Amino acid sequence: MRLVKTLLICALVIIAADSSSVLVQSEPAISLSGSGRNISFSGGGFLPTDTTCSVSSPSSNVILSSACVIQGGSAYGGFTVGNVLSGEYVIQVTGNYGDFAQAIVQVDGGAPQFSQSHLAGYQAGSSVSIQVSGLLPTDTTCQLSSPSSPNVIIPGTAACVILAGGAAYGGFIVGNVLSGEYVIRVTGNQGDFAQTVLTVD
């Protein structure tokens, strides 16, 4: 009888031990690498049933283009950083079963800039063409001005057009001003701007 009780107790302990075991699925995780505008990523812990994946940013439109491949719970790919302000942005890789992993990318965006760092050799009445890159992609209009002397740009002659991707083109006619250096500024409608120096002979 004692042997039977002992066997029953052992059986109950084994059953209890089996019932307490829990299958744990690891959380998906990704890591980022690269520099500049092109970033690659790799990660694991995704569901083995995932066959496709996507890359997005819940915080902004920081991703210009992307690619993602997933197999056996591992994801690989990369993306190109869009024209956004400097800062930290959330990057999310999502499997087609809804499982996802996130990481932070630090963007050190370059300031908008003129194609020419110095506009030289102009006189009163000269036509000046300008080109700017690096403006925000959300800009839809731009304005040409001179903070140092409004008169260096003849009123009504300034024109500025902004294209997709943060590029601006335009021009103006130099006003009747004294020889010297004048600041020329292109401002996007989101408040971002680029400046260069115009030398009038």
Keywords:
201 residues; Immunoglobulin-like; 2 domains; 4-stranded antiparallel sheet; 49% strand
Please provide a written account of the structure:
The longest helix has 19 residues. This protein folds into 2 domains: 83 residues, Immunoglobulin-like; 88 residues, Immunoglobulins (Immunoglobulin-like). The chain starts with a helix and ends with a strand. It is built from 1 helix and 15 strands. The strands form 4 sheets. It has a 4-stranded antiparallel β-sheet with strand order 1-2-5-4, with no helix packed on it. With 201 residues, the chain is mainly β.
Summarize the structure.
The termini are far apart. This protein has 201 residues and is mainly beta.
Assign the CATH class of the largest domain.
Answer: Mainly Beta
Average pLDDT over all residues: 86
Q: Walk across the major sheet and give the strand order.
A: 1-2-5-4
Measured as a percent range, the helix fraction is under 10%
Largest sheet: 4 strands, antiparallel
Q: By helix and strand content, what is the structural category?
A: mainly beta
Number of E strands? 15
Low-confidence stretches: none
CATH homologous superfamily placement of the largest domain: Immunoglobulins
The shape, in one word, is rod-shaped
What is the helix/strand order? HEEEEEEEEEEEEEEE
Distance between the termini: 115 Å
CATH architecture of the largest domain: Sandwich
Number of helices: 1
- Computed CA radius of gyration, to the nearest angstrom: 30 Å
Strand content: over 45%
